[in-house]
Amino acid sequence: MKIMVAIKRVVDYAVKIRVKSDKTGVETNNVKMSMNPFCEIALEEALKIKESGFASEVVSVSMGPTQCVDTLRTSLAMGADRAIHVDTKEMLYPLSVAKLLKALVDVEKPGLLILGKQAIDDDCNQTGQMVAGLLNWPQGTFASKVVLDKEKHVATVDREVDGGIETVSIDLPAVLTTDLRLNQPRYATLPNIMKAKSKVIKKFTPQDLNVEIRSDLEVVEVTEPPKRKAGVLVSSVDELIDKLKNEARVI
Amino acid sequence: LSTLILAEHEGGFLKAQTLNAIAAANFLSKDNSISLLLAGSGPSLQEAAAHAASCHPSISQVLLAKSDKFTYPLAEPWAKLLQLVQKTGGYSHIISASGSFGKNILPRAAALLDVSPISDVIKISEPNLFVRPIYAGNALCTVRYVGSNPCMLSIRSTSFPVISVDSKSNTAPIDEVDLSTIDEDGISKSRYIKQTTQESERPDLGNARVVITGGRALKSAENFKMVEQLAEKLGAAVGATRAAVDAGYVPNELQVGQTGKIVAPELYMAFGVSGAIQHLAGMRDSKVIVAVNKDADAPIFQVADYGLVGDLFEVIPELLEKMPEKK
C-alpha cells in the first residue's frame, strides 16, 4: 500500500504575525516559513505505518508557489520516499486543493491519504473532509489514534470530538486528518537531510491535472483583532475578590 | 433568502449550539425563511423535532430525516443527506455550528455540492459578507462569498448569543424528508463503534458562564483537582491548556485554544497558564479574564483584566476559602 500525505507551507507557528498596513493580508515576506505542524503529524503517522510494514511507500505532496519545494524537501528529510509539487501562483482555497489532491490520488492510487486537520494560517479545517467527499472515501477526521487491520483493510480511528473520544471503523482506502495527540513528529537527522537532496520531486501544474482553479471567495480585508484594554495587577486574593464582586460584578 | 440549519439534538432537545446557529441565521436577513434539518432515529428524534418546531418564531419548517443511517454522527451518510436536501430545497445558505459535528460534515457536503464553505464565522455583515478569525485569531479576515448557492457557513457559537423570545412563539410544521432517492453509494464504508465521555456534573465548557482553567504549572492530575474544586464552588466549567492535557492531567475535551474549545464566558480564570497565542485564541473573547501566575512576565497578563502574580498553590486554597458560593 502507498500512503499519500498532504503538506502545507505556512508561517512558522512561533512567529508573531503582522497584519499588512494596506489590510490585504498577513505579512509573509522575510518571515520564517515551516511545515504546518498538523502536516508534520500526518507525515509522522505515514512513516510509522510504513515502518510497521503496512505500507511500502510514502509520497508527500504540496501545492503553491516554487518555495513549497523547500517544505517538500523537509518531508523527504523526515523520511518520505518521494514528493509531488503542484506548481501554481494562484490563490488556493480548500476546494481547489481538494480537487488537486483528488486528481493526484487518481494518478497515484494510495490506500491512505493523510492530512493535518487544519492549517495554522487560515484555520479552515476543511480540506480532508472535502477530498474525502470528492473521492467518496470514508473519513477519519481529528484522529488521535489509528489502528490498521492488515487482513480486513480497515482502520479503527479514535477521533477527538467535543464530548470526548469517538471511535469509528472505516474501510480502506480512506482519508485521515490528524489531531495534536496522534504522535510526536520526528526531527530530520543530518544524514537524512543529505539523502533527501537526491530524492525526486515531481512537478505538475493544475492544467496537467485537468483542475480548474476557481474561487468562490474574495478576501475583502484582513485586520487586527480589537485589543483588550490594559488590565490591572492586584496584590492579594482579597483585592481580587473585591474587584470581581464590586467592579466587574461577575461573582 | 432561505437557510437550512444542520441541527444537533440530544435526549429530545436541540443542542445549545444549534440555537446559536438559529441566532446567526437571523443575522443574515430579516427576510429569511429558516428550515431546521434534524436526522436520526428513535423516539428522541420526534421529541427533538417538537422542540425544534417551537424553539424560535423565525423557524418556518422542521425537516425530519428518519433513518438508522443517521443514528450516529457519521460524515458519510450525513453529507449525502445535506446534498439531497439541498437538491430539493435549493437553499441560499446552509449553516451549522462549528463544533466537531459540523466541522466533520459540512465541508464534505460542500465538496459534494461543489462550493467553498466558510469556517468559524464570527460576524455576519451582509448575507454574503462574513468575518472569520485566521492565524489563531491574531487577524480577522473579512470574506465575500461570490460562488453559487448554497453559501455554507459554520458559525462560532460564542459569537451569536441566543436572544430569548416570548413563549407565545408559533409552531412550525414538521415535514419528513423523502429519503428514497438518497445516494447510498459508499455510506456503508464507515461504522460507529463508541464514544468515550467523562461523566461530569459541571456545566458544558462551551456554554458555561464561568470557566476555570489550569495550565502545566499545576504539575499533576492530583493537583489539578484544586482547579476542579474551585470550579465546583463557583458552578463553573473546567478548562485546560494543551500542555496540561498533553501531560495527562485532564482529558483532551477540556482543552481551550486554537485547536480545542473556543470559549467566551463572563468570567475566565486562568491558573498557571503562560498564555501561548494558541491558548489565547480560545479565550480572548471572554468578558472578564483573571490570570494567576508566578511569572510576572507571562503573556497571559497582557490580556487579563485582573492579574495576580503569585503561587497558585497558595492562591487557589485562599480563593476556595474566601470566594462566595455560586448563587
UniProtKB/TrEMBL annotation, chain A:
Sample GO molecular function, one term: electron transfer activity
Organism from which the protein derives: Heracleum sosnowskyi
Protein name, entry field: Electron transfer flavoprotein subunit beta
Alphabetized InterPro entries for the sequence: ET-Flavoprotein_bsu_CS, ETF_a/b_N, ETF_b, ETF_beta_N, Rossmann-like_a/b/a_fold
GO terms for biological process, alphabetical: amino acid catabolic process; fatty acid beta-oxidation using acyl-CoA dehydrogenase
Ranges for domain Electron transfer flavoprotein alpha/beta-subunit N-terminal: 23-213
Lineage, uppermost ranks: Eukaryota, Viridiplantae, Streptophyta, Embryophyta, Tracheophyta
A UniProt-annotated Pfam family: ETF
UniProt superkingdom: Eukaryota
PROSITE patterns assigned to the protein according to its UniProt record, in alphabetical order: ETF_BETA
